[in-house]
Design a protein that fits this description.
- The complex is a heterodimer of chains A (149) and B (332).
- Chain A is of the alpha+beta class.
- Chain A has 2 domains: 76 residues, SH3 Domains (SH3 type barrels), CATH 2.30.30; 53 residues, no CATH class.
- Helices cover 28% and strands 24% of the residues of chain A.
- In chain A, a hairpin with an 8-residue loop joins strand 2 and strand 3.
- Chain A starts with 8 loop residues before the first helix and ends in a 6-residue tail after the last helix.
- Chain B is elongated.
- By secondary structure, chain B is mainly alpha-helical.
- The termini of chain B are far apart.
- In chain B, a hairpin with a 4-residue loop joins strand 2 and strand 3.
- Chain B has a 3-stranded mixed sheet with strand order 1-3-2, with helices on both faces.
- Chain B is 60% helix and 4% strand.
- Classes of the chains: A alpha+beta (149), B mainly alpha (332).
- Chains A and B meet through helix 2, helix 3, helix 4 and helix 5 of A and helix 4, helix 5, strand 1, helix 10 and helix 15 of B.
């Protein structure tokens, strides 16, 4: 399967019409091959629509947006549902500086900010734990018993 | 027979019926239908402009609420739940241990049925003697030192983390909260950020807080349903086997956990089914063939890797795992 992403799009698309799916993770990675350690071709943002040509064993073969190139994403990073922009996307009509700032952050952020103040719940450890972030290459190496990881 | 002249209310009801019928046949959304209805009601003097706005807002909230939570909202709920749990338990600030737990846990998550979630999986150890672990819908997984002390190998630790990953991957968190409560959380998110007033945010925040408290209470006090626990065990066993760990490690760990009969049982003993019933449920289901995004051969078969994914020799790997587990255990 390695290198399949370089096959011309026309040849790939001949078999079956692609399906449109939506990215449901904050940053979805499109890789050159269906492997977590294959090179990353592109990063696609939450709510981006992508064309999916086929899916197998938890991987989706997708077209890199704005390109004719094909790559692979985790199928769990995609949803068949359309994700409504209940926050930032619909907030363009806001007029005041506060509203624009709020729109930029999104309503989810605004609720969290307000909840933090009202409940006095401390989020600092949640922020600390979210900083522990490792590349798939490091993780695969760690699981395989690579003493360097 | 005297025929009365139809009242304006009759016409407005007729209008509602016609618009609802039109929405069914022309695929208008409920929200769009209510917009039309409200505008018509205003033009007929049945509603004032303020009431019309209220009606439109209510319709929009109902539509938004029925959609369930978006992955982003699920993540924010997860953050709040994790923060609440970490207000009840002290986090254990040992960067070496937390780095180790995150490498192991995030690596295992690659083999779960949902390897990619909104912001990924994150792990933290809690400084508590209680034997317990928690998983928020946003992928925040918390494990107590009490539970770590029950673990005798990296394989068993992998089993603990994989069980919690499974709860996230199988979406057990929000499924455990009553449907009405999820609907309520969805409604709370369903207003435009640019148009939200401070008062609206405060009102929604209060209700959001109630929802978070309810979910945190379920995780801390009552736990998931037995069915979800058994599902998480099966998925955990599949995850660790896929990642090259001994699938029998899950059963060996469960057999050492406190049973419901143990005096003073708390945490796991209260929030999980009795170990005997978990073992029985595991034994009833043989391990299925391993498939998935990064599938490997089942342990202890030697793994066949792609050239650039080639693993260290499995025997050598087991020594490395044993060595680093011994080194990290001093922090438990």
């Amino acid at each position: 399967m390695i290198g399949a992403g370089k096959v011309p799009l026309q040849a790939q698309a001949a078999a079956k019409a692609p399906e449109t799916m939506t990215v449901q993770v904050a940053k979805g990675q499109i890789r050159d091959a269906p492997s977590v350690i294959a090179p990353v071709l592109a990063v696609v943002e939450y709510r981006t629509k992508v064309l999916v040509y086929e899916s197998k064993d938890g991987w989706a073969k997708v077209q890199v947006p704005g390109s004719t190139r094909l790559g692979y994403m985790f199928l769990s990073a995609l949803t068949e549902k359309s994700i409504s922009a209940s926050d930032a996307g619909k907030a363009a009509s806001g007029v005041s500086a506060t509203e624009i700032a709020l729109a930029g952050k999104g309503f989810s952020d605004a609720v969290e900010e307000s909840y933090r103040k009202a409940s006095h719940v401390d989020y600092s450890w949640v922020d600390v734990m979210e900083h522990y972030e490792y590349s798939p290459e490091t993780l695969v190496g760690f699981l395989n018993g690579d003493s360097q990881q | 027979m005297i025929r009365k002249k139809p009242s304006p209310a009759f016409f407005s009801l007729l209008a509602i019926a016609m618009i609802v019928f039109a929405s069914l046949s022309s695929c208008l959304t409920l929200s769009e239908s209510m917009d039309m209805l409200a505008s018509q009601a205003v033009s007929q003097g049945l509603l004032d402009r303020y009431q019309a706005v209220m009606l439109k807002t209510a319709a929009k909230a109902a539509v938004e609420a029925s959609r369930g939570l978006t992955p982003e909202e699920e993540y924010y709920v997860g953050r709040a739940v994790a923060a609440t749990i970490m207000s009840n338990y002290l986090p254990y600030n040992r960067p070496e241990l937390n780095a180790y737990i995150n490498k192991l846990g995030q690596g295992l998550a690659l083999y779960s049925s949902r390897p990619a979630i909104f912001m990924g999986y994150h792990f933290m150890v809690l400084d508590s003697e209680e034997i317990n672990a928690f998983a928020s819908p946003g992928g925040h997984i918390l494990v107590t030192r009490g539970l770590l002390r029950k673990v005798g190998s990296e394989d068993e630790l992998a089993a603990v983390l994989a069980h919690e990953i499974a709860h996230v991957a199988l979406k057990h968190g929000l499924a455990s909260v009553q449907g009405a409560r999820v609907t309520q959380i969805a409604a709370e998110f369903a207003i435009d950020a640019g148009k939200a007033t401070g008062g609206e945010i405060a009102a929604f925040t209060s209700s959001f807080g109630d929802s978070i408290s309810e979910l945190a209470k379920i995780l801390i006090l009552s736990g998931y349903s037995q069915a979800y626990e058994f599902q998480a065990d099966l998925e955990a066993r599949r995850i660790i086997a896929s990642a090259g760990y001994d699938p029998r490690a899950l059963a060996s760990l469960i057999s050492r956990l406190p049973s419901h009969d143990d005096k003073g049982g708390s945490g796991f003993a209260l929030t999980h089914p009795d170990p005997a019933s978990r073992l029985e449920a595991l034994n009833r289901q043989p391990l299925e063939p391993i498939k998935g995004p990064v599938a490997r051969k089942v342990w202890p078969m030697p793994r066949q890797e792609k050239p650039n994914e080639r693993a260290t020799d499995p025997v050598l790997a087991s020594f490395v795992r044993a060595d680093r587990f011994t080194a990290i255990k001093v922090y438990f």
